[in-house]
Task: structure prediction
Amino acid sequence: MTPAQTEGPYYKANPPQAADLLQPGMGGTKLILSGYVFNADCKPVANARVDFWQADANGQYDNTGYTMRGYQVTDANGRYELETVIPGLYPGRTRHIHVKVSAPNGPVLTTQVYFPGEAANARDSIYNARLLADVQPAADGEVGTFNFVLPGR
Ligand code: FE
Result:
């Protein structure tokens, strides 16, 4: 089961449906994060809602608009794919992406995804190593994978 984590202060309801959070001229290192949503029986969950929000490359959240915020739904294989930038650091936290994941009609799992090799991971009291993405360099930035396992069936 994927551990739940605090939502934090920056979630905004009613984000746009968007798997690609990149905008023209946006700075930062491109990241493609993908993976699957499974239920407690390890069956892939199609049409799960996966709602990401994060700081931009400068560690800033957009609290007036919806930059770096968007939800998507998993495909028939339970797969999601997020196109974004590596989030910047902000005071008090290690590098992370927030997410809410829910199966159709299921409860909402609120959690965060972390990055390997971050010195600040050891200093962040919220950090959980079970939420580490597998991140590798790519030709055009980085590619990461993380699978979510929901509590329901
Ligand atoms: Fe945050």
User: Anything to note?
Assistant: The pocket of fe (iii) ion is lined by residues 8, 10, 93, 96, 98 (CB under 6 Å). The chain has one domain: 30-149. The two ends are 12 Å apart (CA to CA). Residues 30-149 form a domain with the Protocatechuate 3,4-Dioxygenase, subunit A fold (CATH 2.60.130.10).
